[in-house]
Write a structure and sequence with these properties.
Blueprint: H1 5-34, H2 41-63, H3 68-79
Helix pairs in contact: 1-2, 2-3
Length: 92
């Protein structure tokens, strides 16, 4: 498939951000929770940002279905954190 320069830049940036920022942070949160920790306000904010970005990513996948598997796997992983939101202690 042929991509415009803008599409290619968006794809490269999104995948790089996933590899260097999103996935490492998510794995760190998972380790924390697996060790019995609870989510703090920064963990919650990170996960909310991920879910917000997911709507944009979903639109990209509709345009470029060849990226569906690459996008779906991390989104399912991030979605597994949704129930953990309620383990956060009251910080206020």
């Amino acid at each position: 498939m042929t991509y415009s320069e803008n599409e290619l830049g968006l794809i490269v940036t999104t995948l790089d951000r996933l590899r260097t920022q999103r996935l490492p942070r998510a794995l760190s949160i998972k380790e924390k929770v697996d060790a019995g920790g609870t989510l703090d306000q920064y963990d919650i904010a990170f996960l909310e940002e991920i879910f917000h970005e997911a709507s944009f990513t979903r639109a990209t996948v509709e345009t470029h279905p060849e990226f569906q598997d690459i996008v779906a796997r991390p989104l399912f992983f991030f979605a597994s954190f949704a129930p953990l939101r309620f383990q956060m202690p009251n910080l206020g």
